[in-house]
Specification:
By secondary structure, the protein is mainly alpha-helical. It has 19 helices and twelve strands. The strands form five sheets. A three-stranded parallel β-sheet has the order 1-2-3. It has a three-stranded antiparallel β-sheet with strand order 4-5-8. Strand 2, helix 2 and strand 3 form a beta-alpha-beta unit. It is elongated and about 105 Å long. Bound molecules: glutamic acid.
Length: 469
């Protein structure tokens, strides 16, 4: 069987947005599933709109998503000599020709075509003029004027285009740079791409590209045009619908595996299954299950899926991205067992890594600043006694297992005749500064006896000083 070779060829005119990322992911997954190759190519012939910053942003986003490539990145701007060579072949074979029609003339031509009820097309004025290269000449493809071109699409089925609808489109600008359709075809031919999966916004380009393949006597790749990603109002996904860039999701505390999972499901299905690990996707992804209708981007679903991925991820995997977020919150955390234990108390209650970092900060704070409202409610002079008794119980303990901690609380409940809730809230406030946190026993287990005793003592001091004011 021939090795599958797919590609992702972004134009570096901005960041990598979620729609583009989904196309990259489909090509990457298919290559990985088929044990083929995935090629990265940067389509930067539009020198006015392409920027190095965009190239860097695209690499950064792909790397974060964990999309690796087997060959490339190739830059179209460095391949101009190859395009020129192939375009010359088309001129030599009579499949392309120089055209010197002025913008005014082209404008008049289009108006005339529209006035007579047709499409604004080039009328072939220069086709048989045998012009040679001049400074202002463009090169046009001599497209067939009759017959049909069929796109046999893996996702959409057979689509028939009338050649009479096409015109002699430009393949080389007067400055010698190739246009999109010819550059893509030459690249795909020379890079041995045999599977092209892209957004269906490119479907109208495909018959033109097929005609170019034919003129260059090259076999066609298999084409699959994927329906667009839409917003919840069914219009094309845009900033109005929320963050568009892949790295914005990283910055909002999403896991790459969650975004990957979500984007794949947005246009591909495997029964009713929603949650997939990366390896599962590689194992199960085929083009057969790509849907024919547009995917609707739903922020809430993505957030819920992110929470599921956080829950499922091994804590050691979450440490790395969490450390810088803790640093931003003034917490000096390092990788290791302590941080992993912290994560275990938060991974079922965090929708994003930002939530997790917010929730974890108290573990690392040297001094706890208590929430003011909570102080009024839970730090009363009557709270000193249970806190004091708890310290006493803890100090008398040999072990510090969950059972020991529970017993210590039970003893304090008996001694004070207070319910657990009455004791737990001031303790929680003493340990975390807040009224909402992971389970009190879990926190105590993670922080350890010495730190707990110190935090409880600090709270007693705080309450006494406050009472004496
Ligand atoms: N540079 C094109 C884009 O970003 C590539 C389209 C294609 O896959 O042929 O839309």
């Amino acid at each position: 069987m021939t090795k599958i070779i797919t590609r992702f060829p972004p134009s570096p005119t901005g960041y990598l947005h979620v729609g583009g990322a989904r196309t990259a992911i489909f090509n990457w997954l298919y290559a990985r599933h088929m044990k083929g190759d995935f090629i990265l190519r940067i389509e930067d012939t539009d020198t006015e709109r392409s920027t190095q910053a965009s190239v860097d942003a695209i690499f950064e986003a792909l790397k974060w998503l964990g999309i690796d490539w087997d060959d490339g990145p190739f830059f179209q701007s460095k391949r101009l000599h190859i395009y020129q060579e192939y375009i010359q072949k088309l001129i030599d074979s009579g499949d392309a020709y120089y055209c010197t029609c002025s913008p005014e003339k082209l404008d008049a031509m289009r108006k005339k075509a529209v006035a007579s009820g047709g499409k604004p097309k080039y009328d072939g004025t220069c086709r048989n003029r045998g012009l040679s290269k001049t400074e202002d000449a463009v090169i046009r493809f001599a497209a067939p004027v009759t017959g049909t071109t069929i796109v046999d699409d893996m996702i959409k089925g057979k689509i028939v285009f009338q050649n009479s609808e096409l015109d002699d489109f430009i393949i080389s600008r007067s400055n010698g740079t190739p246009t999109y359709n010819i550059a893509v075809v030459i690249d795909d031919i020379t890079m041995n791409i045999n599977t092209v999966i892209r957004g269906d916004d490119h479907l109208n380009n495909t018959p033109k590209q097929i005609l170019l393949y034919n003129a260059l006597e090259s076999p066609l790749p298999a084409f699959g045009h994927v329906p667009m990603v839409l917003g919840n109002d069914r219009t094309r996904l845009s900033k109005r619908h929320g963050a568009m860039s892949v790295t914005a999701y990283r910055d909002m505390g999403y896991l790459p595996d969650a975004l990957l999972n979500y984007l794949v499901r947005l246009g591909w299905s495997y029964g009713d299954q929603e949650f997939f690990t990366r390896d599962e996707l590689i194992e199960k992804f085929t083009l057969k299950n790509i849907g024919r209708s547009a995917g609707i981007f739903n922020k809430d679903k993505l957030l819920a899926l992110n929470a599921d991925h956080i829950k499922a991820a091994p804590p050691s995997q979450l440490s790395k991205p969490l450390i810088p977020l803790l640093k931003e919150r003034g917490c000096d955390a390092g990788e290791g067992l302590f941080l992993e234990n912290v994560i275990k108390t938060l991974n079922t209650r965090s929708k994003t890594l930002l939530d997790m970092a917010d929730g974890a900060a108290f573990y690392f704070q040297k001094t706890i600043s208590y929430d003011e409202k909570a102080v009024k409610k839970f730090f009363k002079s009557s709270s000193i006694k249970p806190l004091y008794l708890l310290i006493k119980q803890f100090n008398e303990l040999d072990g510090f297992e969950e059972k020991d901690i529970e017993n210590a609380f039970k003893a304090v409940m008996e001694l004070t005749v207070l319910k657990l809730g009455k004791i737990a809230q001031p303790v929680r406030l003493a340990l975390t500064g807040k009224t909402v946190s992971p389970g009190i026993f879990e926190i105590i287990g993670v922080l350890g006896k010495k730190e707990i005793v110190s935090r409880l003592n600090n709270a007693i001091k705080f309450i006494s000083e406050r009472e004496n004011q």
